[in-house]
Design brief:
The structure holds two protein chains of two kinds. Chain A is of the alpha/beta class. Helix content of chain A is 38%, strand content 23%. Chain A has a six-stranded mixed beta sheet with strand order 6-7-8-3-9-10, with helices on both faces. In chain A, strands 2-1-4-5 form a four-stranded antiparallel beta sheet, with helices on one face. In chain A, helix 3 runs parallel beside helix 5. The longest helix of chain A has 18 residues. Chain B is of the alpha/beta class. Chain B folds into two domains: 98 residues, 2-Layer Sandwich (Transcription Regulator spoIIAA), CATH 3.30.750.24; 251 residues, no CATH class. In chain B, strands 1-2-3-4 form a four-stranded mixed beta sheet, with helices on one face. The longest helix of chain B has 39 residues. Classes of the chains: A alpha/beta, B alpha/beta.
């Protein structure tokens, strides 16, 4: 995929976030291009989830802008934010399915709220979405009756209910076994290829990153910002920054004390 | 292939129909999605059903936006045509549209739900089910009380295992923070009783009995019961919600695996704190009830503060105060243990927490009234 030819759909400019006096990150700028899968990585506590929440419009940054098609969503009015939320889909860490509702009712909710479709059409659309995430037939199940992977897939079906232009995933494969995680990766690839949906994903799974990411963005806690950006394999092979290297090689960085032993 | 940028694809669409003998040519251009789904579907259906056809051709060459719902609609149009043995072709699809069509699976659309929705059982079944539930609930509660007593005994033998800080915290929560509302309700109740009895007693010139009536009613019945109902609403519900949320978050399981007895850890401090605090709150409520009555006594009955107080004190016996305090302590034990037990009954989800919190308050108030009736009968025989 040639990124240069693509148009940016989300532009993040000089974003800064703080918790009280604590600076989480500063001066974060990047672009999300139409149709790409952008993966955000970084150690725990580096502000990945905060960044995602700001991009979704759930949290206000300390400074900076997030532009979606020219609209700054960090300063948007409630009405415009609602417009934005209709154009994006979010999969939260634990799925965030409403436990009192069946899977069907969960997916039905955005369709009833934002469209004027009749119940028969809504029903068919739900069946189609369930088919897309490989959960055909599960409409009357409650979230508590599904396994972790199924919940995630049902969450994706709900996030995709309105055919969003951008999908956000928080901790995509957290708490899933490798097989289920791989299935989820395949689903992401298939969805991206078929529908051309732009995706922003936070994950730690190296294998998924190599498989699904077009581009990787690495945040660092100490640097309080982005320390690397590029294609995953290129980062793995060519990165010189020890922090980036250690992440992609799955090794703890060598400390100066340990360095002594490597001299010869 | 057209690029689909937002700028060159406004949310407008156009459909033109061309009829040649028995074939219909439909040319689409513009935006086809969730927003205009109903309109374009009915446009096309109307045109198709106008007269007999043999074939339909739908041209997608100028479609600039197509979402999965719209693609689904075209598949349905195609299927409907097929059922009337009309040949339907979708032509000039660009790669992006083809991609969208590729993720719509016929099997999924025809898949019957793997589980049917549960409908309500018939009346007899419901009655049976609720009787079983009540019985199970009762057994559950008795078991819980047993476990609570075992935990209490353990703490009496090993006083160091008591979580003193927690007890103080809940004394603060259930007691100190409840003082204003208990005082207010107590005073208002005293005021109401004084006012109502004054309206009746003044007809027979027995105004002097108003203080007696107020203090007797407050100390014997209303003080303990009003305080208990307030505490059930404030703290019983809070206990259930707190423990319930901990169950949902697997915190209770964590306690188990770390070798703590959740009942000793979570329920005992709450029960102890409540049992300590409710009698004190009751005395407080009694006092404010008498003060509330005094407001009416002094302003409307021409009684002096001194007479009112002496009249009040004359009526109340030490026996009444002691039984009132015992009652309050029993109510407190009921409220706190029901609250905790309901919390532990939560299994999963936010809905369960709400359900059992409500049930904690309702069951506590019910048990308070039942216990109060038992006390009334017991005290009648004891006093004889």
């Amino acid at each position: 995929m040639n990124i240069e030819e693509k148009t940016p759909i989300i532009v993040v400019k000089d974003l800064a976030a703080r918790f009280g006096e604590n600076v989480v990150f500063e001066g974060v700028s990047f672009k999300v291009y139409k149709g790409e899968v952008l993966v955000i990585v970084g150690a725990s506590g580096c502000g990945k989830s905060t960044l995602l929440r700001i991009m979704i419009g759930l949290q206000k940054p300390y400074a900076g802008q997030v532009l979606y098609q020219g609209m700054d969503i960090t300063r948007a009015e409630e009405k415009d934010l609602h417009q934005y939320w209709q154009n994006i889909g979010v999969l939260f860490q634990a799925g965030a399915l409403f436990s009192s509702m069946t899977i069907k009712e969960n997916i039905e909710l955005p369709l009833q709220e934002y469209t004027d479709l009749d119940p028969v059409t809504i029903n068919t659309i739900i069946k189609m979405k369930l088919g897309m995430v490989n959960l055909a037939g599960y409409e009357n199940y409650h979230p508590s009756e599904l396994s972790g992977g199924m919940k995630k897939r049902a969450g994706i079906a709900r996030a995709m209910a309105l055919d969003p232009r951008v999908l956000f995933f928080d901790e995509l494969s957290a708490g899933l076994d490798p097989v289920t995680a791989a299935e989820l990766d395949d689903l992401i690839i298939k969805t991206e290829e078929a529908l051309g949906t732009t995706m922003v994903i936070v994950t730690h799974e190296l294998e998924s990153i190599y498989k699904i990411a077009h581009r990787v963005l690495m945040l660092d806690k100490e640097a309080k910002g982005i320390i690397a950006e590029g294609k995953p394999l290129e980062l793995k092979e060519r990165a010189t920054d020890p922090r980036v290297k250690s992440f992609f090689l799955r090794k703890k960085p060598v400390t100066p004390e340990e360095q002594r032993f490597y001299v010869n | 292939m057209k690029t689909q940028t937002q700028e060159d694809c406004s949310e407008r669409y156009n459909i033109s129909f061309n009829r040649e003998d028995l074939s219909l040519f439909i040319h689409l251009s513009g935006h086809f999605g969730l927003k205009n789904l109903m309109v374009f579907k009915s446009d096309i259906n109307r045109e198709v059903s106008k007269q007999k056809l043999q074939s339909i051709t739908i041209d997608f060459s100028e479609v600039c936006y197509l979402d999965s719902a719209a693609a689904l609609a075209f598949i349905q149009i195609e299927k409907e045509a097929a059922s009337k043995s009309i040949k339907c072709r979708l032509i000039n699809l660009n790669d992006e549209s083809k991609g969208i069509f590729s993720v719509i699976y016929e099997d999924a659309l025809n898949q019957r739900p793997l589980k049917s929705l549960q409908y309500h059982d018939d009346f007899i079944r419901q009655v049976g089910q609720s009787s079983l539930d009540i019985a199970r609930d009762f057994v559950n509660f008795v078991t819980f009380i047993g476990e609570l007593l075992i935990a209490l005994l353990y703490i009496i033998r090993h006083p160091k295992t008591l979580r003193g800080k927690d007890v103080l915290f809940y004394i603060q929560r259930a007691g100190v923070e409840g003082l204003p509302i208990v005082a207010l309700i107590g005073a208002l109740i005293g005021l109401i009783i004084a006012f109502m009895s004054f309206l009746q007693l003044k007809q027979v010139g027995a105004n002097i009995y108003v203080p007696a009536l107020v203090s007797f009613a407050m100390v014997r019945e209303l003080g303990p019961i009003m305080t208990a109902i307030l505490v059930a609403g404030r703290s019983g519900s809070a206990f259930a919600a707190e423990i319930g949320t901990m169950v949902v978050n697997e915190e209770v399981d964590a306690l188990h695996t770390m070798g703590f007895d959740p009942i000793r850890f979570l329920a005992v401090p709450k029960v102890l704190a409540t049992v300590i605090v409710v009698p004190i709150l009751t005395i407080y409520a009694d006092l404010f009830g008498i003060i509330g009555g005094m407001v009416i006594g002094v302003t409307s009955l021409d009684l002096t503060i001194k007479t009112y107080i002496t009249q009040s004190i004359k009526t109340i016996q030490v026996f009444d105060i002691v039984t009132s305090l015992i009652k309050a302590a029993v109510f407190a034990a009921l409220i706190a243990s029901i609250g905790c037990q309901r919390g532990f009954q939560v299994r999963s989800g936010a809905q369960d927490v709400g359900k059992f919190t409500t049930s904690a308050v309702v069951a506590a108030i019910f048990m308070i009234v039942v216990a109060d009736s038992i006390f009334a009968i017991m005290l009648y025989y004891i006093k004889q």
